[in-house]
Fold each of these.
Amino acid sequence: MSPTFRIHEAVDESHLGADALTPLRDIVDDTRSDLTCRRISQWLARCVEHHDTCKAKANFTPTRVIAVGSSGDNQRLDGVVITNTWNFQRHCISIVLNSLAATIQDAIFVCRGLGIHFLWVDALCIIQDDGNDWLRESARMRLVYSNAYLTIVAHNAASSKEGFLGKQFFGQPSWQRRFCSNRARLQRKYHLRVGIVPFSLEMWQEFSKVEERGWTLQECILSPRLVHFTGLELVWECEQGPSLCECGHMMACGAAGQPTKTQFSQYGIDNITNQSWMRLVGDFTSRNLSRQSDRLIALSGLAEMVYARTNKTRTYLAGLWSSNLQEQLLWHSYNTQRSRPSPPTAPSWSWASLGTPIMWEGPWMELGLSQVEVHYDECFCNLLVQSNAFGAVTSGELAIEGFVQAVCVVTVEAPNSASSDAQESGLTFLGAPNGVRIFVFSDLSHAIDIQSANPRAQCWRGHCSSDGDGWCGKCRLSPEKWQEGRYYCLQVVANPIVGITVGTNFSGGPPIEELQFYFLLLERFSGSEDIFERVGMAGSECIDPRSWGLSQRSKSRKDKSGEDILPFFPDAEWKKIRIV
């Protein structure tokens, strides 16, 4: 690591008021020292006294907490049971301190130093081997974290077996050197020391283990106050104001390398949009979960908070929101997998049905034209726990009307593929009878249909010298391929490509624009006529079909604003389908 140096002026802290910026301080050398708790206490006291938005939102007490005792109680802890449901007899009366994981022991040390009497730790306060208790308590995560007095975030502990207290990187003497400077106009000598540049994204990711774990995303965003033990220096975050690192820097919202809470505060949970929600989902799915069945549960507290703060005007459907649902359906997977988890963790149209990181096409859809009609009164999810509308589901169904086209699906070996796994080295395309071929972001991997050396592979990859119907002699498919009736394409959104106008519509209609069309690739479900599963997402550019003439207008539909919806595929049929 190559440090960058800046010189800061030392500040006397005795005159600080509520609105003063955090002054330059020496960084604590070892967080096991009493100075650590004194520093956190200063941040905490200022927040408690002056920040109304950081106060607990409800009079809530967790089902179970741990009474940490005082610093003189070095042997045993009292287990405080708020209800009488704790049947975990081994820890019911007391806990031997040294029997706890190192991270929990360190958390107890911090609580005692701050004068905090009770600690909530999920590993101890939720009975891990009792499925019913785990489901019940995991549904209360929002209340636990949003009403916490303080949340301790241990970035530098890879697991609970590793403690988070100890030497800090920026607390080393080499980072604490002091310099002298004479200011003639003030006629006195100032002490200066080396300053530390704010965290870079690479530095934060290198030192932070928290950013790798799925559960910690909602924990950090929900908590009104957090103190981060990064291994570099201490960092403070709260609802009101930017995050503060120990050396005195203030991190503005939106900058790279920030703690999770500060990153997402730029959107404002009160006004969260589809775009910011799906960005949050993208972050969440890139993190690790020990059980894929926890995907919806580990985000349920955050979803519940969004629902509450948006006046309960949206319906939550397995990780998506009913407002502009069609746009949120256009996620795709970073990496394909062989199959969905068994038993299913979500319906196929939800990102939670897969165990891979996902991306979303939404940032380019501010001007998107919906190409479907969603029948929200017929959309539903079957909940695993009926009392938790934001948790795990067992199944779900969407009812949608739109243009549907029968297609074939072909997987071509990727050129110069280095993978030894044939199912992970293919490019999947959908093809329509008129010769249109579109690359597909597949949810699941497919066996290779065409090897890279086969001349047909070039056709599917976009180098086809087609005849009038869009097919050449090499790539033309047999009639049987079209009669399979296995795969279908649903036209979902058409998005104008900003700044591209192809020409003037001399018939008096709107200007001829270039549009980006987005589709869902569907597979017929168990032989049903109108029930499908999602298996991928695709996109293709096209001149606005509204300029194509009367032949297409015979199939046109009107959306709710009166705009024409025309089929991308000439033979597409407008129909109502169900996606499970």
Amino acid sequence: MKIECCQRSGNVLLKIKMFCNKSLLALAQNENCAHSFRGPSFTKEPPNKIVFHNSSGAIVPCHVTGVPQPTVQWTKSDWTRLPNIPGLRHSRQDGSLVFQPFRAEEYRQDIHGAVYRCIATNSFGSIGSTEVHVRGGTAMFFIMFI
């Protein structure tokens, strides 16, 4: 038996095929089976640009739904997984990426001037957000004498 689920998320069409063995056959014959499982989809996709001041920090949302509930991971633009960096950047349980306030001397180009992507995965598939361009910095004041 083959179960085929299609789901549209933005401009991406996800098509997942699954073959049920005998132990899953009864579940697959259930009228609600097609509605019981869903690949990940965004309920709040991250914006494509975040600009913030070092004294305020920023929170980049990435909220997803699916059955089973998808896990969210943040990656760099090259799809490498992000580690949490205490005091500077971490991901939350709700899928958001948090940039904490930082002192000017703590600025790091690889963190505060980088491109990120939110990836959501469950047993029915994975989706990736568009790129999120992050720019965090300090305010500079110039005094001109004329």
